[in-house]
Amino acid sequence: MDFAGALSGDHLKFLFNGFMVTLYIAFISIVLSFIIGIIIGTLRYAKIPVISKVLALIVETIRNLPLLLIIFFTYFALPEIGIKMSITAAAITALTVFESAMLSEIVRSGLNSIDKGQIEAARSSGLTYIQTLSKIVMPQALRRMVPPIVSQFISLLKDTSLAVIIALPELMHNAQIIYAQNINYVIPIFILVSVMYFIVNYGLSLIARRLESRQA
């Protein structure tokens, strides 16, 4: 093992740049998937004829596909039908599609967890269905959904490493380039990469635990 060579200034800078790409991809994907997930989950909860069934089919299909396949399809297959994207855009698109399906199920479950009696009481008091959903159901459901949503965000951050297959210059991609130079760099680089992932994910998990404890 060559810690001095593996963790040289240039290598650390290269890894840090990759880590910034990882965080950027994760942040954009989290924001987009959160918005889309809430919309899809709410529409499925509302049980709108046809639309709910179509969305259910799409969500279940995506949830049962490996993320690796979705990344491959986004970057390699879509250009065949005229949809070309950069590596970064393809990674964000694939992660957003996959995580939106996951988050929509969390949202739908959260909405379903609210006591139906509250909904009936709100409707009987004169509130419309939309008002009941936005003022009574959604605020309570969101509080219950926070811990599992944060856990899903942690999974998303780790899943960004799968984009290495399309040569996205994220953390794992840059790590591979470094340890490919010298076999003695492998363990030191993997230790540092593990620490970098751990710090961010552990921070998010602490947030999830604190939020969960507040719900108890």
TrEMBL record:
Membrane-topology descriptor: Multi-pass membrane protein
A Pfam family of this chain: BPD_transp_1
GO CC annotation: ATP-binding cassette (ABC) transporter complex
GO molecular function terms listed in the Swiss-Prot or TrEMBL record: transmembrane transporter activity
Annotated localization: Cell membrane
Record keywords, A-Z: Amino-acid transport, Cell membrane, Membrane, Transmembrane, Transmembrane helix, Transport
InterPro entries in the record: AA_ABC_transptr_permease_3TM, ArtM/GltK/GlnP/TcyL/YhdX-like, MetI-like, MetI-like_sf
Transmembrane portions of the chain: 20-42, 54-75, 185-204
Domain ABC transmembrane type-1: 19-208
Keyword Cell membrane on entry: yes
PROSITE patterns for the chain: ABC_TM1
CDD domains hit by this protein: TM_PBP2
GO biological process, one term: amino acid transport
Annotated family: Belongs to the binding-protein-dependent transport system permease family.
PANTHER family xrefs: INNER MEMBRANE AMINO-ACID ABC TRANSPORTER PERMEASE PROTEIN YHDY (PTHR30614:SF41), MEMBRANE COMPONENT OF AMINO ACID ABC TRANSPORTER (PTHR30614)
Name of the protein: Glutamine ABC transporter permease
Source organism: Cytobacillus solani
